[in-house]
Design a protein that fits this description.
This protein is α/β, with parallel strands linked by helices. The strands form 2 sheets. The protein has a 4-stranded mixed beta sheet with strand order 3-2-1-4, covered by helices on one side. The chain has a two-stranded parallel sheet with strand order 5-6. A hairpin with a 4-residue loop joins strand 2 and strand 3. The protein starts with a strand and ends in a 7-residue tail after the last helix.
Length: 184
């Protein structure tokens, strides 16, 4: 059984719990994360080098100074299908969105739109694996395991609608103001 180290981080969106194995970051969870099973059996380690690196990169992201993360990730807790979806999520550029259907096509599973949505919702590494960039084909913002308000704030931050790392939690016609990504 592998050891999971964790620490807590304050962010403009509230507390985040960061987790890492020896292989990479394996969790970024919001305070009321829908699918978080808890940290029982994990070791509190606020000096873990990989967790400290994740904190710095997340702080840079919230300050508007980082668009991509270059951290090693450990997605081994996911199924092969979930890992494929999460890999597809990492290809959605900063400030762009895509639909669940487009993501399903991108991973060559066009009939698996609902399964893609479920895998998206089970992403354990919020923000770094940008599941917040997936919206409904109608352009509507749909559920987010970290809370819809946090999804709105992350998208606003990425669209330059926030200043100095303070994301707005208001949805201002996001779907009409943001380009949709078509994978190539």
């Amino acid at each position: 059984m592998k050891t999971i180290h964790y620490m807590n981080m304050d962010s403009p969106l509230g507390p985040l719990l960061l987790a890492a194995s020896d292989s990479g970051i394996c969790g970024v969870y919001f305070e009321h994360h829908k699918h978080f099973k808890g940290s029982a059996g994990w070791q509190l380690n606020p000096q873990h080098p990989l967790l400290l690196q994740a904190v710095r990169q997340l702080q840079d992201y919230f300050a508007g100074q980082r668009q991509d993360f270059d951290l090693p990730l450990d997605v081994s807790a996911g199924t092969a299908f979930q890992q494929a979806v999460w890999a597809g999520l990492r290809q959605i550029p900063f400030g762009m969105t895509t639909s669940y259907g487009q993501l399903a096509q991108h991973i060559r599973q066009p009939a698996a739109v609902r399964a893609v949505g479920a895998a998206n919702g089970r992403n354990p590494i919020s923000i770094i694996i940008p599941c917040h960039r997936v919206i409904a084909s109608s352009g509507a913002l749909t559920g987010y395991a970290g809370g819809l308000e946090n999804k709105q704030a992350l998208l606003a931050l990425e669209n330059g609608q926030a200043k100095h790392g303070q994301p707005k939690a208001q949805h201002e016609q996001h779907s009409r103001n943001q380009s949709s990504l078509c994978f190539v």
